[in-house]
Amino acid sequence: MPPTSGLPANFLFGAATAAYQIEGAATEDGRGASIWDVFSHTPGKTLGGDTGDRATDHYHRYSEDLELIADLGLDAYRFSVAWPRIQPTGSGAVNSAGVDFYDRLVDGLLERGVEPVVTLYHWDLPQALQEQGGWLSRETAFRFADYAREVAAALGDRVHSWTTLNEPWCSAFLGHATGEMAPGIRDGASALRAAHHLNLAHGLAVQTLRGATGPASTVSVTLNVHALRDAPDSPVDGARRVDAVGNRVFTGPMLRGEYPADLLADTASLTDWSFVLDGDLEQIAQPLDTLGVNYYHSEVVEPRPPGEAPGPDAMAAFPGCDDLRFRPYEPPLTDMGWNIDPDAFEELLVGLHAEFPDLPLVVTENGAAFPDLEIDGRVRDDDRISYLASHIAAVSRAVRRGVDVRGYFAWSLLDNFEWALGYSKRFGLIRVDYDSFERTVKDSGHWYRRLIAEFKAVSR
Fold first, then answer.
1. Is 167 among the catalytic positions?
2. Catalytic residue among 167, 180, 346, 418
3. At residue 404, what are phi and psi to the nearest 5 degrees?
4. E-assigned strands of 9-152?
5. Which of 28, 115, 152, 450 could anchor a disulfide with 156, C-beta 3.0 to 4.6 Å?
6. pLDDT tens track for 201-227
7. C-alpha 210: how far from its chain's center?
8. Is 74 a residue whose pLDDT tops 90?
């Protein structure tokens, strides 16, 4: 049975990227500094001191990348707009050169029959706003809505698929609890405050997009929903607690109009949640057309063994859960050290559908980092092919169980700057030589092209 068996005929296959990870041209054509520019230039924050200054040079090589997108036969391409390229200081006048770049990119996609899917925020907050408080300030949410209005005004006549935020959990908790990502703050209470302001930014932006783009557009948010289960022998409800601060801190206000009572209770020692003002939840809980789901791996939650002190481990990203830990992964593992668990992916999709049955899902990121073997110009990455095939099959199984999944975007189109890990991990369907910027379609890219072509031949 092919991995696409059971998918509807109008199912979209695409690939995804993010602005700071691929564009480069960090100081060109009026672009302002982002928090990732500052963070990556701070000694010790990224592996090898790598930065996104040049990344994959997509800003200059977008025409070549458009040809590669078309050659892969993608239905859609998901990319993010760099806020500091549009508004260098995060507010005020629009930088016309930045708008022009995205104009050309969108037009190039449409000319090739590829649907542009725009993410407004993939972690590159303008540094000027960070200096005014960043996501710890509720004013940033209102500046984000203003920015959304400017992007919609520029691109909304051609772009009809919009995502407000990508993985706000990472922005809030990896950026403000563990400090492993920009802006590098380490305080659990600050992470919860940032999460609320990201929720507010989302709600305000949804309203802005609705008003600016019309009824033909779809509006979404993308969440990295954690796939969690308790260890079989666990005496505590650890998965529930991690789910509260990892997932329901966003799905609660966005999709139900409330912060879960157990989340508030679990984090009462950290914050009184007084930053949630009257009317905020009504602003946040805006109707969505789809929910974007990013998935890479699963977690098993268990109590922290007696005598094991909380350290700089994954649980620091989940405030209030210091007495818990994630059970070490069992092989096989990806190059990120993550497990490979397509069954958990299937159950995650089924569970989301059960919880929100009227909300269609789109897999907005799924993929794996593996070392590539390059021989005579051919890039062999059989492990990635196996990962993608097993996870697309998991989506198909979920669809056959009644889950409304509308599309799948492989992460990533290109090898790229992998945040604090610099250029050490490769997720791309297309290999990038970081010295020459030469692109080479990997075996996985050729496989994905055949998969899409065969699916289209049978179903359309």
1. yes
2. 167
3. -90, 95
4. 12-16, 76-80, 115-121
5. 152
6. 999 999 999 999 989 899 999 999 999
7. 22
8. yes
